[in-house]
Design goal:
Layout: H1 6-20, H2 23-38, E1 43-46, H3 50-63, E2 75-77, H4 82-92, H5 97-105, E3 111-115, H6 122-133, E4 137-142, H7 147-152, E5 155-158, H8 164-186
Parallel strand pairs: 1-2, 1-3, 3-4, 4-5
Helix pairs in contact: 1-8, 2-8, 3-8, 4-5, 5-6
Length: about 190
């Protein structure tokens, strides 16, 4: 019987090595977010499925804490308010579920962090269009091609893979490193 896990582990290792070449981009993303937060702006996160879970995870790391004691940082996942999600979907259609929330909440100088492994999720793209129109900085996390999200992002991490599981694994490693970078700026001295 062939090894059912070896190829996945090997591909994951390759992508971790690839991510090492993206450190300047990760630092730039972290700096943009930290600067926005320092200027009293908010980070809004969005995505579908596993990317929705990642959006919530990132928001929790910023609002709570990652590794260090520091003030709570303003971050909100637009995937959590079921009443809004369902009423917007019912009244306007699921394609507008993020756009309506962004229209209501996002202001110039805020950061909108959009996650989509394909880069083509219609509701994510619609939300990003609205965010750009409001003067928000757009951070994209996507897969190899970047899809439509890449062109609409100010900064975009396009993981060198086409499969959503491998892409999301590297997204998680990348956003943990970004959260650590941001947290170092706001941490209280020991």
């Amino acid at each position: 019987m062939s090894d059912p896990f070896g190829p996945g582990i090997s591909e994951h290792r390759r992508l971790v090595d690839w991510l090492g070449s993206q450190v300047p981009l990760l630092k730039e993303i972290g700096q943009v977010i930290a600067d926005a937060v320092a200027a009293d702006h908010c980070v809004y996160l969005l995505g579908n499925g596993g990317s929705a879970a990642d959006a919530q995870h990132i928001a929790a790391e910023l609002v709570g804490q990652f590794k260090r004691r520091r003030r709570a940082l303003p971050a909100l996942a637009l995937t959590t308010d079921t009443s809004s999600l369902l009423s917007i979907s019912n009244d306007y259609g699921f394609g507008h579920v993020f756009a309506r929330q962004i229209e209501a909440l996002v202001r110039m100088g805020d950061v909108v962090w959009a996650l989509s492994t394909s880069g083509n999720s219609p509701n994510v793209i619609e939300g990003v269009h609205v965010a750009r129109g409001l003067g928000a900085t757009v951070i994209g996390f996507t897969g190899r091609s970047g899809g439509k999200l890449k062109a609409l992002s100010d900064l975009c991490l396009c993981v060198d893979h086409d499969a959503s599981d491998r892409i999301q694994e590297i997204h998680q490693l990348a956003y943990h490193m970004i959260c650590d970078f941001i947290e170092q700026r706001f941490a209280k001295p020991q």
